[in-house]
Design a protein that fits this description.
The chain is of the alpha+beta class and 205 residues long. The protein is built from six helices and eleven strands. Helices cover 30% and strands 26% of the residues.
């Protein structure tokens, strides 16, 4: 099922001023490319947005992420990004500060940043064709584990330790329909990993 857009975690939002445009400009450029490629967008029938993008910023454990329900917007600005200032994966809790509430998938991003300080950016997209093509062919989380749960954190720990996820930077969430994650040492690397696959035709299609 498409379970996008429902905030399962406990989110504490402190409404505040946007980050500087220069702080989010590179992040936003890649978000734009992912939106154009249809990897971030909006399920019209479900009236819910999908896909989100983040970069490490500030103190250890903090990151900037696109806001909840921004997938339908063709163009974002600093008004649509928020700093996740604290998170506790075990307690399903994030605290965010900015003009918009953090994406409902912030906990998944937090989980991934907790894996390794070398991870500087996380991209989460939805694409049915890509998901079907990659599932169980690249590192894939257990189908019984839904996104936004502490169990998903353990799944990513397992993938990072036991598969080539750390090296290739792409994983499929089997328990989150159409959901794919990429990571990188920069937002460019994370975004290009997904865009690179989208551009390549696989032989067995
Ligand atoms: Zn998703």
């Amino acid at each position: 099922m498409i379970d996008e857009g429902y905030i399962k975690f406990d989110s504490e939002w402190h409404k505040g001023a946007p980050l500087a445009e220069s702080t989010i400009s590179e992040l936003n450029r890649w978000r734009q490319q992912l939106y154009t490629a249809g990897l971030i967008g909006y399920y019209k029938d479900l009236k819910v947005g999908f896909g989100n993008i983040s970069i490490r910023y500030g103190k250890p454990g903090q990151f900037i992420i696109s806001g909840t329900q921004t997938g339908h917007l063709a163009v974002l600005s600093s008004d649509h990004y928020v700093l996740v200032s604290e998170h506790n994966v075990a307690r399903n809790h994030v605290t965010c500060r900015g003009p918009v509430e953090a994406s409902s998938e912030s906990l998944t991003h937090a989980t991934i940043y907790d894996l390794d300080p070398a991870i500087q950016a996380v991209v989460h997209v939805h694409n049915k064709t890509l998901w079907q093509r990659l599932i169980n062919k690249v590192p894939t989380t257990d189908a019984k584990v839904p996104y936004g749960t502490p169990e998903m954190a353990n799944e990513f720990k397992r993938l990072y330790r036991e598969t080539d996820f750390a090296r290739t930077g792409i994983a499929v969430m089997a328990g989150h329909d159409e959901g794919i994650i990429s990571i990188g040492t920069s937002v460019k690397e994370a975004a290009e990993r997904i865009l690179g696959i989208t551009a390549t035709k696989s032989d067995d299609d």
